[in-house]
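Two records follow; treat each independently.
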Amino acid sequence: MSTFKTISTTTALILLAALATGCTRIETGEVGLRVGIDKQISGAELLPGSFNQTLFGDVLTFPVRDIAVVLENKSPLTADNSTLKDFDMTLVYSINPTSVSDLWTTKSRTFHSYDGASKDWFLMHGYMISVTNNAAYKAVREYKALSVADNRQKIEAEIKRIVTETLTAEGLASAMSVSLVQVRNVMPADDIIASANAVVTAQNALRAKEIEVETAKKEAERIAALNANSKAIEYMNAQAQLKIAEGIAAGKVNTIVVPYDFKGIVNANTR
């Protein structure tokens, strides 16, 4: 009897260990699908927080929130037929949890991406990379190379609009949604930057010359106006004499004042 009890206890422990190691918990922000021994999807989506045995068959997990599509080192063509040196952006989308089974079973595997580290499948990630890339190239094409950086917000909004319209046209609007588009870096081609700097330098030099011409013109006009009105010169001289006289009378001038028409001392007695 004791031997039977020992065997029963051992069997129970083995079963418990098997259940503990052969079980998958669906994490928050994920949805699971059970795959039967026949490799077919069985049952509905497995919700976050549920524990699901994997002794027989398997459980696939799919993140459904804030999935990032990262585009880096892209070179879209601009409105002035210049290729950007660098264009980096990020798009974030989410999956409707109730659409996980349908997307997995009806869409090509090439549309999805697998992460070996987390052992998660990212639904429609490959598809979204392609759609986002096309949208980015279309949006950037509307602006000249030197205007792309200044119009980031408009480009982000345009990319989101194009991607959303594409999802709607493909019948995916209820299954997927875009929450964020961010253009992280924009760099025009080196020759465009060099040309822009050359233009700015030329414009500054031209403006400096224009200021010189304007200054000389104003001075010439001032002199011409004075020459055309001799009374004005006489008035200015009289005003100067008046100021000097007022200064002497007030005791503010301690220098010898010589009249402007002074011709020197004549017939002075030096003895």
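The next record belongs to a different protein.
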Amino acid sequence: MRQWFYSLLLGITLLLPLSAQASIADITRIYKQTPKLDAFEICTGGGCAEIKQVALTSDEWKVVTAIFEDQSPNNASDAPLERKHIAEAIGALERVVGAKTGTSTDRAGTFDNSRYPGQLDCNDEAINSTTYMRLMYQHGLIKLHAIESMGTRSYFLFGWPHSTAVIHELASGERYAVDSWFYDNGAPATIVPFAAWKSGYFPADSPIIKGRAAAK
């Protein structure tokens, strides 16, 4: 397993109170799972402190497949469109899964919202988004990208660590962060070049930014 994952686990352990720490074995199992529509696990509670079992019906999955219907099969020029579809599909899955798991109330960010029920942190979001994309890939919806290991930034050097799911475009090799933490549950994920995300990217209209501005 890559070194980043051990770093991520250490970060989770340090950030969570002892009563809420996730089992490293559980995090590893969930992250490495081969999800199926009728059986997969998602992380909640911050650092995967809570684990929820989820199943999707065929009608619920049709909501996801419908998002990809206007994409030409295997057309490399459609890679930007496929990224748009991935972002929208993650939002759709968050809405479906949120209703089943009590995470529909998840708000953008983490620390200012910890008092709200159903809150996810960036580690939960990154692991869950990776799981959702694996489902899409298995069902032939993702054709022009490959799913990578999660990425982190600011690992206890310049601020709090932050994690994201990651993909790369097959034709160009360009890497992209797939970050669902910037907005409330059900919003499309933010997909930007990984280098930009790594340097500290935040969407200007994210509620996190608006909250910081209001607090000043």
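Discussion point: Residues 9-20, 212-216 have pLDDT under 50 and may be disordered. How would you locate this feature using only the token line?
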